[in-house]
Regulator of chromosome condensation family protein
Amino acid sequence: MKTKNIEPSIMVSGDNSYGQLWCKKETQVTAKFIKATSFPFESKISRISHVSAWNQSIAFVFDDFKVFFRPEDGQIHEFSTGTLRQICCLENNVITLQYDGKVYNYLEKNFYQQEGISQIAASNNYILGLNNTGVVYLFGAVNEPAKEIEKDATAICCTGDEVFIIKSNSIIVWTNEDSKSFETSTKIIAGYGSETEALFIDTDGNLWHYDSDALLQVFGLPPVVFAAVGIQHYAAISYDGSLYTWGFNPSAQLGIGSDKPSNDPYHVLDGTRLVACGTHHTLAVCGGAPEIPEGFNNSVMIKSAKLHPNQKSVISRAELLY
């Protein structure tokens, strides 16, 4: 399936109080997605390989190598440590994972001792790593050994309060005080967390929202390959590059033309390959095709395109996963 031919661009919606939309200073709020005309790296947009946001802070990676980090104060910090596989932006810090398995803490200007990591997750309270054999580590100080907290995991994500350890048929919800688990009837392949919320994708591209020790399916979406979470607002990219948003909307961060909240996913952009959600804004990287996550069932893309060639979001309901 081909993504529509969209020129490389940064598209933004929501609050611009901190200049996080990279548009005219007099623009305080935009209720629809507009082009970020003041983005300082416009000629390099097609080379953006990763983007991550936390509150008003954001980090971009160009060519899997060079990181540009802009915290809330608006000052851009540039650094590089090696070829990057993943990035997690925090309020005043960036955690990066290299392809050689090393994890770097930008604030500490140092690598963690534990190596051989294949996936990371981070919030203001947790920094985690997952290795190729399924061991989950909790990182502390960079000069201290990481703490092993679980085995046989396939993916991880976290919020400010909870760690989600994904296994073949269950999810463990872990905190510093205790842990609990629940079984799943579908195989989860990826998780995405913010300060308060978490979303999950299964092998068929179904999207699930964590709520009160259960996963609730988000309906009204084609197969999803990437998601982002803000503070009670959500964004998802389908296999064909369509961007959908829904949820809390006081600053018009959904880009749907108003500040009304929506339980229904809205189709807001085409040609989207990356998306990030801040507290009150959404930023999309357009131009090119989204990356398909490992473990995704590619046959569902063909099936969805045949069954729903002009699919639009019209319903939203919840269904218990277990």
